[in-house]
Amino acid sequence: MSERQGRDTNEKWQITLLGGLTAKRGETEITTWRSVRMRSLLGYLALHPNQQHDREFLAEEIWGEGAPGQRAVDTIGASALLTQELSRLRKLFTGNGSDLILTAHGTCGLNKRLVETDVGRFLAALDQAERATSTDERVARLGEAVGIYRTGGQLLPGVHHEWVEAKRTVLAARLDAAEEELAELRRSTESDVDLDAMKERIARDAWRYQLQLHLVAGAALNTPEQSQWIDRLDAERQSCLAAIEWELQRDAVPRLLGSQTLRYVWLRRGRKNEMAEWLTVRLNTPGFVAPTPRPWLLSALATMNFHILGREALSRAQMQEAFDIFSRMGRRPEMAGSMASLAYCAYSSGEIDAWEEYSLHAEQLLIEIGHDEMAAKNRLGRARTYLDMQRYESGLRTLEDSDSGDRSLHGTNQQTLALLYSAVAHAGLGNFGEAANRLKGADAVKQDAPNLKLDIIRSHCWAEVAGLRGDALGVMRAYADATRMSVEVGEASWVVDHLGNLLDVLAKSFGNGSLPKFPRPIALRDFATLIEGHRLLAAKSEMNISPDDSLLLALIEARIAGRLGPTGMKDAMHSAQALTLTSAAALACSLFVPAN
To answer: Among the ranges 433-437, 442-446, 508-512, 561-565, which has the highest mean pLDDT value?
Structure first.
């Protein structure tokens, strides 16, 4: 790293985040850094100088998902990286006469008394502009804020993580608003004030404020600050709705970010109907929604109705109307998105021919506009669906088409997925030798890009191949691995799916006596771990557990604890038939878990 050292002073460290990361204090200046990871860590801490962060959360937030072109890092690896980089930063800054990095009791952060950033000055100037009592003062403070940002440049260039992108979006929105208001204020001092224009500006500023609030709240979701931001959005929902109304009445392409964030927040608050009903009233009020925003609003409503409210027929009609309007507007990216959603709706309704037609149409649109990678992903999804329907020949043909010609599959992850799905297709056709080769090939490709979610899909595909070979023990081991990793990665729906698959195969295997030598004590220990992981995950994610799953979990936990014998288990299962608990799960509970 490059430094210029001189006599230390009592001045604060001046950390520059816009246009490149530098740190300066007195005559000491640090301009280059040992690694991108060091830049990422210091950049994150400097963007939150008034906070002490939980170290486990911080490690996962900065490195857990990886950045484009970089390897993802698991939880253990991320924590190790954090410890290493913190040590290097502390040594660097402590050696220059200040204890800038503070660590204690599982937390870390910057000493706020010793740091000042250009982003902090930018935000402070905007706050001062808001509190200004005169036009001249407001113009001066807005000009100061714009100058700070424009003199710098992009936030943390060269750092590519979700948290950076979210912060860039928020800061860019505030910069745009400041520049536009500054231009209008300067014009207003040169001519008579246009009252209508001033009213429009006030309304637009209110909308921008709400939009920024949504963006910040969205960036805070799944962080320790989540609850306070949900509370704030909930308290301001009327003004949020007013901002969305203003947006819908303008004949311009809407962002509708406000509706997306509010939908998520209100879902957490257990009021999942409220947003959809509010938007539906606006949509059906003649002349309320301008022509251009209408298809975006229809798409948003269709998504809510399908995924949250289960109104499949209504969702499909709204998505079809949105597609028709997008077609007339000539907006092919949105046409492709609408067509893909229609394909999903058709498949969920069991209309396989319609699903295939919609999926192919969406793929063709993606190819026409040059979105090759999205087209490849769509093709992989269609191949996966063919395999789910046990149409192995169709799935294999789709995969082979994906990997040939000029428009081949892109990216390590997609190559790995294609090989995994191809293995299942070959196994379905009885080509077990070729299936084994494809599985080995997928493992070889994946070594260059570790990815826990990809490992879960790999275990699922291994289970399918083992099942087609009649290897029940292999199926169980694969589903057990998939369940454990799903708990680790925090995918609640995957936990439920893989745990259900494990129960089914256990029930069938023990029911026909195909595994008389299965190591039951080990299985009991592993199964107890899975149940505990699922229970904790459900509590952590506030997941709505169905009556079936709640009863199943309670019965299994009681059985493991020895509080319920086999006879009591069967009686309880019999009395639970009104809840449609599957007989396979019941048999798995009674046979798989022996009495203590």
So the answer is: 433-437
Burial track 85-124 (b if 16+ CB lie within 10 A, e otherwise): bbebbbebbeebebebbeeeeeebbbeeebbebbbbebee
- Model confidence over 177-222: pLDDT tens digits? 888 888 877 776 655 556 666 667 777 777 777 777 777 777 776 6
Q: What is the DSSP letter of 101?
A: E
The β-bridge relationship of strands 13-16 and 115-117 is parallel
DSSP string, 250-302: SSS----HHHHHHHHHHHHTT-HHHHHHHHHHHHHSTTTS-TTTHHHHHHHHH
At residue 98 the predicted structure's pLDDT band, cuts being 50, 70 and 90, is low
Q: Are 450 and 462 in contact (CB under 8 A)?
A: no
In this structure, what are the phi and psi dihedrals at residue 103, rounded to the nearest 5 degrees? -135, 135
Phi, psi of 389 (to 5 degrees): -90, 5
- The Cα 335–Cα 439 span in angstroms is 36
End-to-end CA distance of the chain: 61
Q: Are 206 and 181 in contact (CB under 8 A)?
A: no
Average pLDDT for residues 228-252, to the nearest whole number?
Answer: 82
DSSP helix/strand/coil, 22 = strand
CA dihedral in degrees (521, 527, 529, 534; nearest 10)? -170
Per DSSP, the three-state class of 344 is helix
Give Rg (Cα) of the chain: 28
What is the value of pTM for the model shown? 0.54
Among residues 66, 105, 108, the alpha carbon closest in space to that of 86 is found at: 108
